Amino acid sequence: MSNSPETRSSRKLEFVNLIAGGQGFCIEITQIREIRRWSPVTILPHAPSHVLGVINLRGAVIAIIDLAAKLGFTEIIGVDESEIKETPRSPDDQTTRAVEGIIPGEADMTKIINLHAVLASDRAVEAA
Asked: The whole model's pTM is what?
């Protein structure tokens, strides 16, 4: 995301909004490849509970992740890019690396999650 005022005020972004641990989070909808109707999956033994299995999608084997089970999916929201604030970080802070920005609300703040960073941490744990 660009920080220039011209770019930030001209774009409308869409996010999948969710609640996890009592806190608001969202994922930019462009990070989600596809939202599909349900179709049968091939179950993977010993997969995490949020990984429902795999499907053959146009010749590619794709993992099916249940965002509701993993993150608590609730709705899709639209936000002007100018409303997004930078995530406060300290130089050694690894805990916020998956938070790309913050959308302030009237009663709380919604953190923008980088889904690729979240899933990369899952892959690192599984590889260990």
From this structure: 0.54
